[in-house]
Specification:
Layout lengths: L5 H38 L9 H29 L4
Amino acid sequence: MSEDRPETHATAHETSLAKLEQAKRDVEAAEAQLEAVLSEIRVAPRAEKTAVSRAIECALERLRAARASLVEAETILAKETAPRP
C-alpha cells in the first residue's frame, strides 16, 4: 500500500488550486464576452442581431467548460479533505 507523502498531497492541492483559478479566469472572460455582445445587440439593427449569435454560442461554450473545470476541482478538493478511514 502506498502512503500519502506530504509532497504528493501538496502537489495535488496546488493542482486543484490552479484548476480553480483557471476556471475563475474562464468564467470572467466569458462574462466579459457576453457583456460585450449584449452591448452590441442593443444598438444593432434587427438584421445584424443574428450575426452575434455565434459570439453568444462561444461565450456559452466557455462558461460550460469553466463550470466543468470547477466541478472537477471541487471533486478533487473534496477527496483531499475527506477524512481518511
